[in-house]
Amino acid sequence: MTHTPISRTLLTRVHISHRQTLLPLLLLLTGMLLVLLLFMLMPPPLWLQGQANYLPLHMLLETLAIVAAACIFAVSWATHKRLGTHNLLILACGFLVVALLDFSHMLSYQGMPDFVTPADPEKAIAFWLAARAVAALSLLWVAFASWQTLSQRHWRWTLLSLGLLLTMAVHGLILGLPQHLPALFIQGQGLTPLKVGMEYALIGIHILTAWRLWQLMRLAQKFNASALFAASLAMAMGGFCFTLYASVTDHFNLLGHVFKVIAYGLLFRGIFIEGVDKPFNELAQSRAKLQATFDAIPDMLFELDQQQRVVNFHPAADSRLQLSPESLLGKTPAALLPAQALHVSKLALEQASKAGFAQSPPFVWQGEKRRLWLQLSAAARMINGRTDGHVVLVRDVTELKAQEERIIQLAHFDSLTGLPNRTLFEERVNLSIHLAQRQNSSLAILFIDLDHFKHINDTLGHTAGDALLCAVAERLGNNLRDEDTLSRQGGDEFVLALPGADAAGAAHVAQRLLDSMAQPIQFADNTTTITASIGIAIYPMDGVALGNLMQHADAAMYQAKALGRNEMHFFTSNLQERMSRSLTLENALRGAIERNELSLHYQPQWLLPEQRLVGFEALLRWQHPELGTISPSEFIPIAESSGQIIQLGEWVIATGLQQLASWQQDGHSDLRLAINISAVQFRRMELVVRLAAALHAHQLQPGCLELELTEGVAMENPVHASQQLKVLHDLGVRLAIDDFGTGFSSLAQLRHFPVDTLKIDRSFIEYVDTDNSSLEMLRSIIQLAHNLSVDTLAEGVETPSQLKVLSELGCGQIQGFIWGKPQPADACTRYLQQMA
Ligand SMILES: Nc1nc2c(ncn2[C@@H]2O[C@H](COP(=O)(O)O[C@H]3[C@@H](O)[C@H](n4cnc5c(=O)[nH]c(N)nc54)O[C@@H]3COP(=O)(O)O)[C@@H](O)[C@H]2O)c(=O)[nH]1
């Protein structure tokens, strides 16, 4: 729409919410003003002068005005309650009076038949002025009064009665007492000054009303202020026309009537838009919104009436439960739902009626093709505090239910084997312990660990390893009763609970399991024989709490492993003692460095052919004030499992290198030091950095340090080991494989490690002079080392005959009591001084 400069300026002065409606009204008012000016400036066209047919035209215009006024009454009366304002009531009653007075005005018009008294302009003008006054005052009222909420209901009837009484009084006065009315029109002369003055007064009221409405339009309003504003101005213009006419049939009179019709039309339109059109539009919009909301809800929606009959149904687009509205409308839940679901729905509807909203638990619906889980959400539709019906959402929760079951499965069962996991196992066994306690019976816990399972994983891969675990789980399960609980705790560890089993029963089951495991087992296109080690603890003898029993069964399992694997072992008091000793040592070891309880002993290492000392092996010693001397064979594994080995290992490196530096400074510059590195230390990436820093701190060549790693350390994770060994080799330190021959070294793999020395385990040396197979083994190892260009060092050499054999086999170095036991540093220093 194009804006003229004036309208643009005017529009900027009103609140944005009025601009759109105000603009066409301003244009209309401008048009009306132009027509009025035109009428005033130009002589009337011939067809308008002294119209012979003015009466029907007047009747037509008045009828239109009366209809518009009646419509204003009807719409305002009907909507004032909903819009909540008494101003509409004033307008309604005011325009009812206006309609009635205008009707009498029309009947009194010159040329009309008698209406109680003969028709004449004076009478018509009196009704006319009365109607105009009521219209002007009604509008003035609503412009100045606040559009507040109605409080008293009886007001509407009081106001209506007052309006009708006023109408009757005006009629009584005009029709019954005309002689008391002042002259308003003089035939042949035109309007009296009183009539013109009254018209001007009415015009003043309209302009005041319009001014007030204009002020109100600076803010957003609850009513259509622009329509009221335009109607007031149109009425003012109409009123002006009635100050100008000389004859009741002249063109100003006609224009005044037309403007009056326009003014009423504008008023009606404004009230209609606000009271009917706008709410209908809003209703249509909210319906569309509601429909869109329904379409977006993935649930079926039912509307039930008071008798719980389906009166409306909205299907869910993507539901697997497709129902046709025809099959549902008019039916009650009783006719639609199976018995169990009916009960659930009844409870939900009852609850919703009481609390406003309710949700049912999921229930099963047997559809034509499949079984579904459904859930109801019901809300009560309340009218005047009474339940008028319900809205029920039916949600297909089949997927959710399946997920819930999957979560329960995952939370309680091992995902690989499907066996109960630790959580479920604990739940069940705690219950069994409780029962055993009440029934004074026993219960056995079996800790089952597969022997050398890691080897399968390393050689055949993890997928094959997983398949084997599943096959083992199945085989173990096949040998158990229903009441037994077999669980997988992780890795290759299984724990079995045998409710009611005593030691004999547990041993019987354990043996059956070991026997069954001895049979070749098929998994992922492989067949193998795998053994297991089983540790057994019995309730209440070995513990009354599950944690205790598990710990003891675990300890017993380790004992079974130590006995050579493929064994069962019961928890014993001896094991108990070892566990408690281990705990004591773990605690005592904390702070041992700070309390100066640790020291290093050094054992000489010799070049065999030259019988020359090449260096020492640093061996850790622990002297506890109360526990006495504790062997590293005992405390090193404890330090490893508790993590304390890191701190101890660093102390050994620092102390050992400091001692070596001191000896080298004393003139033994070629002297070497061997240090044992545990698996835990070896795995840490910082090892290299720490070593480099320690060597640098004591200004030692890396080549004078030899790290002793056991076979197991190197083979645990060959890929990582090979990387770490390469980094250490690049640093320049020497690398030795300790206890060689006791582990499961893949010789092929060993070839790829940058190893300098193979330290042959003492067990091969011990009987080398008496046992032929030991001799052959030793020969092969030395031969292999020669082939790989790796040095050999035999440890634990105690006798001259052992020395002789080693010498004949070409062993490079020896270490053993024969040529020197581990000694404290000062003893070694004295020895070195004597040698020099
Ligand atoms: N990670 C670390 N491990 C260490 C450290 N210090 C020692 N250890 C390891 O503890 C195990 C036991 O050591 P230990 O009791 O010191 O025994 C050593 C020697 O005393 C013993 N030995 C040496 N010669 C003979 C002999 O002729 N006969 C005989 N019966 N025993 C002898 O052998 C042990 C040395 O073994 P090894 O290290 O394999 O060369 C032992 O495994 C140590 O490694 C440490 O600081 N860190």
Q: What report would you give on this structure?
A:
The protein has four domains: 51-281, Rhopdopsin 7-helix transmembrane proteins (Up-down Bundle), CATH 1.20.1070; 296-316 and 326-406, PAS domain (Beta-Lactamase, 2-Layer Sandwich), CATH 3.30.450; 416-572, Alpha-Beta Plaits (2-Layer Sandwich), CATH 3.30.70; 590-835, EAL domain (TIM Barrel, Alpha-Beta Barrel). It is 56% helix and 17% strand. The strands form five sheets. The protein has an eight-stranded mixed beta barrel. Strands 3, 4, 5, 6, 7 and 8 form a six-stranded antiparallel beta sheet that branches. A five-stranded mixed beta sheet has the order 10-11-9-14-15, sandwiched between helices. A hairpin with a 4-residue loop joins strand 6 (363-366) and strand 7 (371-383). Helix 3 packs antiparallel against helix 4 (86-107), helix 4 (86-107) packs antiparallel against helix 5 (121-144) and helix 5 (121-144) packs antiparallel against helix 6 (155-176). The model has no long low-confidence stretch (mean pLDDT 90). Bound molecules: ligand LFPHGCPZ. The site of ligand LFPHGCPZ has 22 residues, from strand 17, helix 20 and strand 21.
